[in-house]
């Protein structure tokens, strides 16, 4: 069994990762660096994706600090996320569903309706478990959607 450290240590950094300079400069890398050690211990149901919810950095490009309530709102209203893991049957056609070749891959940004999926924290990182049908598009930049 893997050593995941104490829950307090994991949560402290996961909950504040969006407040780091690393996240502000490259949220993709910051999320991946944080969650990579834990992904092997997660097995998804067939048609589910694990997506790290995109949250705004603590500081705007102009240097202004966002309020805590504004930052927390992204947990519930963000419409973008980084695909971390796919279930075995994700984006595979079946008798009732055709994806027409569409597929989101791990480490790609996607957009979805914020009401879809189950919100969870994984080691303090805010994530969503989404059904493959609820992915609207693959996007290059998570700041493109709101």
Approximate strand percentage: 15-25%
Q: What is the CATH superfamily classification?
A: GroES chaperonin
Discrete helix count: 4
Radius of gyration: 15 Å
Strand numbers in spatial order across the main sheet: 4-5-1-2-3-6
Average pLDDT confidence is: 89
Task: State the CATH class.
Answer: Mainly Beta
Question: What is the CATH fold-level name?
Answer: 10 Kd Chaperonin, Protein Cpn10, Chain O
The unreliable regions are none
The CATH architecture is: Roll
Q: How does the overall form come out from the CA principal axes? A: globular
* Helix and strand sequence: HHHEHEEEEE
SS class: alpha+beta
Q: Kindly, what is the distance between the CA atoms of the first and last residues, rounded to a whole number of angstroms? A: 39 Å
Number of domains: 1
Number of strands: 6
The major β-sheet equals: 6 strands, antiparallel
Bin the helical content.
25-40%
Summarize the structure.
The chain is α+β, with helices and mostly antiparallel strands and 146 residues long.
